[in-house]
Write a structure and sequence with these properties.
The complex is a heterodimer of chains A (322) and B (246).
Chain A (H helix, E strand, L loop, with lengths): L1 E5 L9 H17 L2 E7 L15 E5 L9 H15 L3 E5 L2 H14 L2 E6 L4 E3 L2 E8 L4 E7 L4 E5 L15 E3 L10 E7 L11 E5 L10 H10 L2 E4 L1 H5 L20 E5 L5 H7 L4 E6 L12 E4 L2 H19 L1
Chain B lengths: L1 E5 L2 E3 L21 E3 L1 H18 L2 E7 L5 H10 L3 E5 L6 H12 L6 E5 L10 H8 L4 E11 L2 E8 L2 E8 L2 E5 L11 H9 L2 E4 L8 E7 L8 E2 L5 H11 L4
Parallel strand pairs in B: 1-4, 1-6, 4-5, 5-11, 6-10, 7-10
Antiparallel strand pairs in B: 2-3, 7-8, 8-9
The chains are: A alpha/beta (322), B alpha/beta (246).
Bound molecules: flavin-adenine dinucleotide and adenosine monophosphate (AMP).
């Protein structure tokens, strides 16, 4: 019995999502009184570092059929690794990769699964319980997993990566991996920006900004805060901003530490994607905007005056910090 | 082309979620339901566009009770050729995937379309499970899909960008925003839908490996603290000293 964490390394680099999953896995292992092992598939930079975030040991499998991502090949590899290492709980990140393989791994292992969990598991009356937001964050549900084997995917920013150890021993694991059926032709990433799902601070703009030409100040605010940018649905629909920035019930659900909403009214479908943010700041010229009810801090004012002032204030603050 | 679109039912996006007194279930009295937007707006419409261009049929399948016929008829009104309802409460992704797999196994669908997630439990699990049960390739969160012969070129959303992949039929794909434009059913479609076949089949046995045992509402907000729009240094101070987020 052990906990196996599939730690993904897109383009060979571990990201925050992997460290969060490892810390989650370690705390689950502590709860169950067992060891936390990390699984690394394909080439990756320094797998031993996963020990820092809580892995007792790292299994590293390389194979020609793992050189590009294919859900069937990767799920087969993860399920096999779980069987070979005697893992009963498999943990992964709720990312584009995790979402593609989580259900497949559950079927392969005959395991009960819950995707997008937001808190550490608990044992209540002998039952294994996990919690996740449902109805796009309008409520939480506690799931009982009844099977001996369990598969979980962990929502981004649900746990903080914690330093729980040092470098872990890495052991090679040989796996039979079926050939990929999906051929990856190209990967296009927006360079130099924090990806939205991982961002700790998000600056978001709505229709109140009037047009795409006014996004300069949104980007500048994001820049000074080291934040990612997001937008409301009409803004993406009108092509002012790319689709992948659209947050809400029909866009991305995010849970940053700080969400700054500028010129967004706060419709229920928008809130559904952002109401799990730790702190919400709303800047809107209409004091009646519904978003103020969901906000921690509010500024009633014209974004075109307030945002440049806020940028200057943050610059002053950053200058003092240094 | 023979296409299958999996459609699910979900509370309306405007719906207020209320819990029963003991928090063990939802209070669904007066709840309005819709077809899951990803299934309706993107998966179904892209499937229809493909058969309009290449010939073929679009079947929709839903796992659910008789109440769901309403959303199934809507899918037929938008343009699907026929429908199948597997007559059971969709109690878990595992259960639903086993039902659809049992039905689709010997039907020879070229593409099985799903939505990227149902907006109620936000699982994103059914499509991957279905693909595994049918031993098919699977591409998740597809925001573009073009066919050339038996090969699809698909753009899928990944963290901070997109990935372009190629895959041959048969395969399973889950649709995200961008794949198509929403279609509103017209009067003729609604009339025709009444005469289109809707077959009801009974479920196969499949035990739920998970169950929801408790619901809770998110903690209430303390109320908004308003900051003078002239004094953004004060906002920065609050975010640093009080909220500790910068
Ligand atoms: C099924 C369904 C799903 C949906 N899914 C989503 C979703 O996922 N995400 C989403 O965002 N929406 C979604 N919507 C749309 C949602 O209902 C709202 O229409 C949308 O969120 C409104 O966007 P907005 O706040 O940018 O624009 P508006 O509602 O037009 O609000 C603009 C705001 O800007 C303020 N403003 C104007 N000028 C200024 C200024 N100079 N300075 C400061 N403030 C100013 C106004 O007071 C107003 O509050 C969905 C709708 C449906 C029906
Ligand atoms: N009860 C159901 N009947 C048919 N298809 C479903 C059902 N539940 C989910 N699906 C399909 O699976 C997709 C993802 O659902 P989920 O895994 O529940 O997030 C949905 O967008 C549908 O295409």
């Amino acid at each position: 019995m052990s906990v196996l964490v599939f730690a993904e390394a897109p383009q060979g680099q571990f990201k925050k999502a992997a460290f969060e999953a490892v810390t989650y896995g370690r705390k689950t292992a502590d709860l169950l009184g067992t060891e936390c092992h990390a699984l690394v598939l394909g080439e990756a930079e320094n797998p031993a570092q996963l020990g820092t975030w809580g892995a007792h040991k790292v299994w590293h499998a390389t194979h020609d059929n793992l050189n590009t991502f294919d859900s069937r090949s990767w799920a087969a590899a993860i399920a096999q690794a779980a069987e070979k290492t005697g893992a009963t709980v498999v943990v992964m990140s709720h990312t584009s990769t995790g979402k593609s393989v989580e259900g497949r791994v559950a079927i392969r292992l005959g395991a009960g699964s819950v995707s997008g969990v937001s808190r550490l598991p608990t044992i209540d009356g002998g039952q294994f319980h996990v919690v996740k937001p449902v109805f796009s964050g309008k409520a939480y549900a506690t799931f009982e997993i009844k099977t001996e084997k369990k598969v979980l995917s962990v929502m981004g920013n649900a746990v903080r990566p914690e330093t729980l150890g040092s470098e872990a021993p890495v052991e090679a694991l040989s796996l039979d991996v079926p050939a990929p059926a999906v051929e990856v032709v190209e990967v296009k990433r927006v360079e130099g920006r924090v990806p939205l799902p991982e961002a700790e601070i998000v600056v978001s703009g709505g229709r109140g900004l009037k047009g795409p030409e006014n996004w300069g100040m949104i980007e500048e605010l994001a820049e000074v805060l080291g934040a990612a940018t997001a937008c409301s649905r009409p803004v993406a629909d009108m092509g002012w901003r790319p689709h992948h920035e659209h947050v809400g019930q029909t866009g991305l659900a995010i849970r940053p530490n700080l969400y700054i909403a500028i010129g967004i009214s706060g419709a229920i479908q928008h809130l559904a994607g952002v109401n799990n943010s730790k702190v919400i700041v709303v800047i809107n010229k209409d004091p009646e905007a519904p978003f103020f009810k969901a906000a921690d801090y509010g500024v009633v004012g014209d974004a075109f005056e307030v945002v440049p002032r806020l940028i200057e204030a943050i610059k002053r603050f950053k200058a003092q910090q240094n | 082309m023979k296409l299958l679109v999996c459609i699910s039912k979900t509370p309306d996006t405007e719906a207020k979620i209320q819990l029963a007194a003991d928090g063990k279930s939802l209070d669904t009295s007066g709840m309005k339901y819709i077809m899951n937007p990803y299934d309706e707006w993107y998966a179904l419409v892209r499937a229809l566009e493909l058969v309009e261009a290449n010939g073929g049929t679009v079947t929709v399948v839903n796992v659910g009770p008789a109440d769901n016929d309403q959303i199934i008829r809507k899918a037929l009104a938008i343009g699907a050729n026929d429908a199948v309802r597997i007559n059971a409460e969709p109690t878990s992704a595992w259960f639903v995937a086993h039902q659809i797999a049992a039905f689709a196994k010997n039907e020879g669908y070229d593409i099985i379309f799903c939505g990227k997630e149902t907006i109620d439990y936000n699982g994103s699990e059914v499509p991957a499970m279905l693909a595994e049960l049918l031993d098919l390739p699977f591409v998740s969160w597809a925001s573009k899909l073009d066919m050339e012969g038996d090969t699809a070129t698909i753009q899928r959303d990944i963290e901070g960008g997109v990935e372009i992949v190629k895959v041959k039929t048969p395969f399973v794909v889950s649709a995200a925003k961008g794949m198509a434009e929403q279609r509103i059913p017209n009067m003729r479609g609604i009339m025709m839908a009444k005469r289109k076949p809707l077959k009801v089949v009974e479920p196969v046995p499949a035990e739920d490996p998970v169950a929801i045992v408790q619901y809770a509402m998110p903690p209430a907000k303390k109320g908004v603290k308003l900051v003078d729009p002239e004094n953004m240094d004060e906002l920065v101070r609050l975010l640093h000293e009080e909220a500790k987020v910068i």
